[in-house]
Amino acid sequence: MVGQIANFIVNAIGYGGYTGIFLLMFLESTFFPFPSEVVVPPAAYLAAKGKMDIALVILSGSLGSLFGAWFNYWLSYKFGYPFLLKYGKYVGLGKKGLDRVDKFFKEHGEISTFIGRLLPGIRQYISLPAGVARMNFFRFSLFTFFGALIWVCVLAFVGFSVGNNVQLVKKMVHEAYVYIIAFSVIVVGVYVMIKRRRA
Question: Helix (H, G, I), strand (E, B), or coil: what is residue 74?
Fold first, then answer.
C-alpha cells in the first residue's frame, strides 16, 4: 500500500512537473497536513533518473514553501491571533498547537522563522506568530527562504540517494533530524550571542 502511494506521488510529480512540486510544497507550508517528505524525495528520485533537474526541484520546492509561508503570514498579519484561535481548529491547529508555535517564536525571536522551517510540528505554523507580531516582511522572507532551502536540500539529497524507497527515505530523514537539531541549537546560540553584543 505504501509503495503504491509512493508510486502515485512519483507519477503525479512527473505529470505536474516543477509546477506540481511548487503547489504541493505551497500546501505543505500552509495548514494542509501534507508532509514535504512525500514531495521532494520522489522528485529528487526522478532527477536521479534524468527525468528532472535537481536544481529546479530544489528551487521550486523552496519557492513553494516560501509562498505558503507568505500566505500564513498575510493571514495572521491581517486577522490576528483571535482569528487563528477561532478558526485554527478547523484545519488541525488547536489552541495548544498555536500556543506552542507562539511560545517558540517569542523565545527565539525572528531567527525562529529560520529554525522553525527545519523542525517538525513547527514548520507549517511558524509564519503565524511572525505575522501577528508584524515581523519585518523582508527579514521574514529571507529567514524563511533559507530555512526552507536547507530543508528541501536535505530531502532532495535523501531522495537522490535512496530513490523511491519509502522506508529508507523515512529512516534517513529521521536520522537527519539529529543533525538538524544540533545545527539549530548552534544557530540560535550564535544569534543570541550576536544580539547580546549589539545590545
Answer: helix
